[in-house]
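Friendly challenge for the regulars: who can give me the structure tokens for this chain first? No prize, just bragging rights.
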Amino acid sequence: MIKKDEFFLLKGLKDSEKEELLSLFPKPQEFKKGDIIYSADKFSNAIGFIKSGRAEAIGSGDKSLLMKTFDEGTSFGA
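First reply, four minutes later:
Bragging rights claimed.
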């Protein structure tokens, strides 16, 4: 379960508002190092939250181009 104080996007909301939003989230998923979480091939309008660990955004044309690193408590998506 995602805790209501883990993510910066929820800061400033009342506890009741945080609880309501979090109840709408899908079940958390786990990924292993090297797993692709999101790609242009699997595009969807979604947002992801990094609960633990970190994720990297790597350019699709050049696998060696690191665009951004996402640490615990941050979000990503389109």
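The mean pLDDT is 81. The two ends are 23 Å apart (CA to CA). Your move, everyone else.
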